[in-house]
Amino acid sequence: MRVLKLKIYQPQAHYRISFAYQRRHTYPLPPYSTIIGFLCNVLGIRNYKNQGEACENLNCQCNYHKLKKIKISICGAFESKTTEYIWFRNLSKDSHNSRFSYPQNRYISGHIEHIGGQIPVLIDILNHVKLWIHLYHEDQEFLEKIKNSIENPQNRIYPLHIGRAEDWIVIEKLEFIEINETNIGGNFKKFIWIPRNQNSAFEKIEGILYKLPTFYSLKNGIRDFEYIDAKLNEGEILATKWKIKFYLDKNDNIPVFLADL
Questions:
Q1: pLDDT tens-digit profile of 32-41?
Q2: Of 76, 136, 140, 257, which residue is the least packed, with the fewest Cβ within 10 Å?
Q3: Who wins on pLDDT, 132 or 87?
């Protein structure tokens, strides 16, 4: 099987778990929605108006609908995790009055500040992150387009990042490779998302079960995500014992589990 492979390095990254608030926890790997957002950025796809959804059933060939047919595998590792303090703004009137005493005031200790109050929040940060992302599409020309868009950005919307806007990336490898099935596993010592569409492999492979976001549409200005089931595996794939097969990137010895989104 021919896939497009991205090997990525990030000095720091935060892949937010959406239901964490007072302390912003992070996944050890970006969820599928984060990689989809990265690809939308590369291709210049803006979905704030639900681009193309009116032609959902007309076999549309735009980038948006082609992207919805992509299959993604995500594997990675990080060196360490640290926790930082950051300030979040609370723009409620009560929070503003609590800090500034009355609505018209914006001065604290002689310095003008932003309106509202401040809330200290803990945020978990991954350090020295490495990601291996494999992409498959039935239309190989679309994968070529993704590769060319990364190498020669013309429609890119933002600087390349995965996670927060400040989580910039270094692309160490960008190439097409062939992956083949194997039944020889081992401990790969990396985190791997195992999507439910892996049939019997999903039930046998160990890992914590998550519902991960994928694509979204806007409803009344709010993102309404689709979700898929995926297990977070820590790299131990006992293929012989479990009698399963999976794809392997032999160049970097990376297991590939493509999620059908």
A1: 999 999 999 9
A2: 140
A3: 132
